[in-house]
Design brief:
About 35% of the residues lie in helices and about 15% in strands. With about 240 residues, it is an alpha/beta fold.
Length: about 240
């Protein structure tokens, strides 16, 4: 009762407008959601952007640990960026229905290249999770495991808090700069051979590659990423 009243007050003071048609009511209205067609970019190396394969190219493989990346849409898409922003930075969980629907509608294109993998996520720091109330990467990993019928495990913990990479200037984003911020979860007894790492956004790749390095240093053979949105390799 009280929570519903508070929501009514917040909605009245801060009305939502559809990111597509601008009508008041929802962040992404049902009409727009049902008619919107996602236009993904061509598959490419997640680090240098060379096209042809979602696998990390031979040149980038010498310096990076992530073996490849599956992404829904470019982060530059204003609707995708807006919905993720409301979810990640404003803690608005009403957009989760839309986000999950996007993955379900594109499951054929987004199906990871490996059938035998364990799904996990790139965890945020525990202090940030307490503040936000949820970990968006963990939510995404649960959807991915459910949609693709894959096992889900908690494999990593974030031992050091860092500034979000999406809010870090591109000149200061460097793959390798975040190595050492992750550890294997203390309750993990045996690591799988193949892991699919889930996160909301991939920009420079520094965070996800640091997570992949932690897993591979511990014995995982192959690590791929899965994200809602990917920034350009220049970003």
């Amino acid at each position: 009762m009280g929570g519903g009243f508070c929501k009514m007050v917040i909605d009245a003071l801060f009305p939502r407008f559809c990111l597509s048609c601008k009508r008041e009511g929802q962040i992404f209205c049902l009409d727009c959601a049902s008619n919107w067609i996602a236009r993904p970019e061509p598959v490419a190396c997640p680090f240098c952007g060379i096209r042809g394969s979602a696998r990390t190219c031979l040149r980038c493989r010498k310096e990076n640990y992530l073996d490849g990346l599956v992404s829904y849409l470019p982060y530059g898409n204003p609707i995708v960026r807006g919905v993720i922003g409301y979810w990640k930075y404003d803690g608005d969980r009403s957009v989760e229905r839309t986000l999950k629907q996007w993955i379900e509608q594109s499951r054929g294109r987004l199906r990871p290249v490996f059938e035998e993998f364990v799904v996990t996520h790139v965890p945020i720091h525990s202090s940030r999770k307490r503040l936000r109330g949820f970990d968006q990467a963990e939510v995404l990993s649960n959807w991915v495991g459910e949609i693709f019928d894959a096992p889900i495990e908690m494999l990593l913990v974030r031992s050091r808090k860092t500034k979000p990479q999406a809010k870090t200037h591109h000149d200061k984003r460097r793959v390798g700069s975040l190595d050492g911020i992750f550890e294997i979860h203390p309750q993990v007894i045996e690591l799988p051979a193949r892991v699919l790492l889930c996160d909301d956004v991939f920009t420079s790749g520094a965070t996800m590659d640091a997570a992949a390095k932690c897993l591979k240093d511990a014995g995982v053979e192959e690590v791929w990423g899965f994200v809602m949105a990917k920034g350009s390799h220049e970003a």
